[in-house]
Amino acid sequence: MSAGSTQPGHAFSRGDELPPLEIPITRTLIVAGAIASRDYQDVHHDAELAREKGAPDIFMNILTTNGLVGRYITDHFGPAAVLRKVAIRLGAPNHPGDTMVLTGTVEETDGETAVVRVVGANGIGRHVTGTVAVTLPRTVSGPQPPAYAAPSAPAPGGAA
């Protein structure tokens, strides 16, 4: 399979490699991800306290990593892709100033579903390893209903 996005309804094969995705690890990404996931542990936002606990700096939490892995898969397979299962394990921490490179390989296929082995490596090793099961719905021909229909405005005079 060539690099780039797979359109819904297109096949994938065992051994297909996804193009790498480089993600700069910034202090803002780490802190914003922790706040967005309501993870207020000091090691994700306070460099001094992280150092007191033995880390060289703040580091990314698993929920941010999980979201980035999901983004990697949906960026490749497209917006119709449905993540069925994400199973990841953390390794080397992501610290500010590093870059994480996500790579993926299709390990299994079953009809419209593929299992992709994902690795995210940074300057000190593998930050994340795991698998993602993703389903690509079949392409439906013909006109499609709108994704969102705005609610009707109330009738004049307030009667609905």
UniProtKB/TrEMBL annotation:
> Which Gene3D superfamilies does the protein's record reference?
Hotdog Thioesterase
Disordered as annotated region, ranges? 137-160
Query: What Pfam families does UniProt report for this protein, alphabetically?
Result: MaoC_dehydratas (PF01575)
Question: Where in the numbering of this chain does the MaoC-like domain appear?
Answer: 21-114
Q: Ranges of Low complexity compositional bias?
A: 149-160
Q: Which family does it belong to?
A: Belongs to the enoyl-CoA hydratase/isomerase family.
Entry protein name: MaoC-like domain-containing protein
| Source organism | Streptomyces jeddahensis
